[in-house]
Amino acid sequence: MATRTSLQKTLGIGLTLGVTLLWLVGVTASGLVAQHEMNEVFDSALEETAQRILPLAVTDILNRENDTGNQRAPALKDHDEYLTYLVRDEQGNLLLRSHDANPEVFGTTPIEGFSNTSTHRLYGAFAVSNTIYLEVAEPLAHRRESALEAGLALLMPLVVLIPVSLLGVWWIVRLSLRKVVDFQQDIESRGAGDLTPVAENQLPREFKPIAIAVNRLLERLHRALESERSFTANSAHELRTPLATALAKVQRLKTRIFDDQVKKNVTEIEEALRSLSTLSGKLLELAKAEGGGALSQNPHDLVPVLAIIVRDFEDQVPGRIVQSLPEQEVSSFLDPDAFAILVRNLIENALKHGSPNQPVEVSLEDNGTLRVCNGGDSVPPDQLILLRNRFTRSKTDASGSGLGLAIADAIAKGAGMPLHLRSPVTGRQDGFEVVMNVINTW
Ligand SMILES: Nc1ncnc2c1ncn2[C@@H]1O[C@H](COP(=O)(O)OP(=O)(O)OP(=O)(O)O)[C@@H](O)[C@H]1O
Ligand SMILES: [Mg+2]
């Protein structure tokens, strides 16, 4: 599976490694060329020295009055010798040597021209009809040291070059990707309900198709949501009107009937029509909640919405609701219509399923925590976790279809806000409590 890497990091490391590698190849090539050239210069100096010493040595040896053999050339002043030399005759007898020369460094038989031992580079030259042999030796360590110093001098800039190129690449990549990062943050920071097009003008050419595709997708999503909303609204209208007409006709019919049995039957039809009407309303609410649109594009203050809903219920059941609303605004991206549907279902449940002798507490805090709580028998945990499912009800005497909590849950999920069901109420032995935060999203 491909791991997610940062483009900035990959480019920064990749380009720096590439530059470093190329530099190393360049340094190696230049080092080899420099070493070759240096060897040529050293060889030429070695040869030149031998050719210079040879006539002097020959004159010196031939001018000797008596052949005393091994003689050491005197040093004018004390010094270290890079180059040492040895002069021998054809029998291998030592005739002359430089003051530091070590005969063991030289081979037993002299070789004309250049040759190598394990430690020295030698140059041999013959004179006086090949009777006098001169050999000059130069330590190889000297050459190696020179090559090493040249190589190090070429490598030194890398110490500065690597951090500088890493910084440079990082800076250029960051500069070029700035608009892309802005684009990414723009998408990340917008709420799930914000379907306005993303800005595509500032993006580099390579990323523009992505922005165009995202905008097309957003537009299609927007159209789909719009058509779903209008379908839901139309269906609601189409269903409600005939049901309301039928209910009105049945109620009128009831007033004209005097036979008790027939009146009882008509009342049953009226009840059935009424619950059908409620069920269709709930189904439409559920369809709307599941169809999205739980979030709005702009934040709204939800306190007045909650106050109106509570007042509506107050009119129906005076004194049962204890409300606690914040002084200041509670601004939320939760769509006010969706919030109204959610709260209505929760308060309706609390009134319907809670103990009639105990109040229903409805509270909204400054931090956005909404809490609807009622007394009564607590719901067992195994049933509690199932109550969000459609048409699922626990033990209750009240009428209903089991859709209210499914609607509330769909709205909360659509808005990305967790809905908590608790029974018994926190800190009590009984009751049922629903808690949700209308500001924090997942
Ligand atoms: N506030 C509450 N107190 C006690 N029990 C509750 C409460 N809210 C829900 N319940 C239990 O959860 C079940 C499911 O609730 P839900 O709102 O989904 O359906 P309903 O209220 O029975 O019917 P509908 O809401 O469709 O009219 C209820 O039948 C009830 O048993
Ligand atoms: Mg309900």
From TrEMBL:
It is found in: Membrane. It comes from the Bacteria. Its main location: membrane. Residues 234-442 form the Histidine kinase domain. The chain crosses the membrane at residues 12-34, 152-173. It catalyses: ATP + protein L-histidine = ADP + protein N-phospho-L-histidine. GO terms for molecular function: ATP binding; phosphorelay sensor kinase activity. The keyword Kinase applies. SUPFAM superfamilies: ATPase domain of HSP90 chaperone/DNA topoisomerase II/histidine kinase, Homodimeric domain of signal transducing histidine kinase. One of its GO terms (cellular component) is plasma membrane. It is an enzyme of class 2 (transferase). Gene3D superfamilies: 1.10.287.130, Histidine kinase-like ATPase, C-terminal domain (3.30.565.10), Sensor protein qsec (1.20.5.1040). Its EC number is 2.7.13.3. It holds the Pfam family 2CSK_N. Residues 174-226 form the HAMP domain. InterPro entries: 2CSK_N, HAMP_dom, HATPase_C_sf, HATPase_dom, His_kinase_dom, HisK_dim/P_dom, HisK_dim/P_sf, TCS_sensor_his_kinase. Keywords: ATP-binding, Kinase, Membrane, Nucleotide-binding, Phosphoprotein, Transferase, Transmembrane, Transmembrane helix, Two-component regulatory system. It is a multi-pass membrane protein. This is histidine kinase.
